[in-house]
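Quick sanity check, Monooxygenase-like flavoprotein:
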Amino acid sequence: MTATPRSDVDVLIVGAGISGLGAAYYLQTQRPGTSFAILEARAATGGTWDLFRYPGIRSDSDLHTFGYEFKPWRDEDAIASADKILAYLREMVAENGIERHIRFHHKVLGAAWCSADARWTVDIELVDTGERSQITANWIFCAGGYYRYDQGYTPHFEGRDRFAGTIVHPQHWPEDLDYAGKKVVVIGSGATAVTLVPAMASSAARVTMLQRSPTYVMPVPGKDRFAIAAQKLLGADRGYALARRKNMLKQQLVYQFCQRHPELARRLIRRANAKVLPAGYPVDEHFKPGYNPWDQRLCAVPDADLFAAISDGSAEVVTDRIVTFTETGILLESGRELDADIIVTATGLNIQLLGGMTLTVDGEAVDPAERIVYKGMMLSGVPNFAYAFGYTNSSWTLKVGLLCEHFCRLLDHMDEHGYDVACAQVDRAGMATRPFLDFGAGYVQRAVDQLPKQGDSAPWQTSTGYHDDVKLLRHDSVIDPHLSFRRASRQPVGIG
């Protein structure tokens, strides 16, 4: 194994998914003199939308808010398939010449900060050859997502080795998997499961969604008629902006309504489910969760396709617990056995913060779980390091766009005053903290002890409201008493 000479940039972006590509656009347009590179471990842009290949993969947010603010979504499908999202992302990359900044097959292993030099030295492995190299940067912008790309989550299933058929996790979908005419059991009840079931039901002999407990599932229109009309009447840019504002408001109103009136929200969701299911269907058994709406993410089902598959008999939902896999299927606690040729474990993700990279600051290892988040984009005591983490209660990209804007304004301020270093510092001992993600989803709860914390007041709280973040990240000054600035090899110079 050989090492190549190191290179240097102002900003190093980790990840070429929707967040990293967006960060590149903002840097390129708002700070044209800033040098940057994007490191991507895989061979293509797109992140999640290129990685997942299971049948029917689609967004669970409308693309008028999940898409970029600066690039209108022109397709009529508001809830869009992965191929359409990829085409949109790659069109943006081509339009803005961003690909020349991307280095594919470059996996970031770790980064070491040196205060004397005010730079990060980043260790990289070339995935296809194993060769190691380094790059130095004044800033790192981590856009590596929040889950492990190489390994999905699968719990222990008793008797798994006995099953004679095929077992597959959606994150690792085989290109040659033939499920036509086969009996399929999909284990899970989240967004992936409710996507897979109707997509596979059209050609499989039978598809069963096996869930331990129900999830809130809401039928929504696949097309946004308001957005289509707005773009026809006002043009692509203005129509898109109007539809985006309408959908942002709708998302916030739905979330706030569910938080303030959970029992009424339960009844309304149940009524919507019952309306698209056959008369007499046991709605409460299969679609009545034990938690309140939006304590976990609500699954959107475009054009009620899951309910349509249930109604025509090509799919069914079973709510039960697994005792063991058998040679021919799954034995349940009720005594029922589900026959299967293929079992799909749509059982979730493994959270992996910061793309799995390690960090050190002047030789001391950084444990993210011991840090507090600053403005939802930096970690306390970690200089010149920003990360992208979107909303869990509305479209992910809404927050990422605001973070990128704020990041560029922060760099502008540092340039204007000749600063090399910015570091968020907690100003009081014993600050009350709570989990970074106050969210009941299983993938979050499994990793809560690995994640940073949020504090009890701004700017240490992680906002979940777009309009609050517009004020904090777009309109408020980057100057903050909790953010210190300095020049290389000099003492902090306060907030100026």
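Posting the structure with no commentary besides this: The domain at 160-345 is CATH 3.50.50.60 (FAD/NAD(P)-binding domain).
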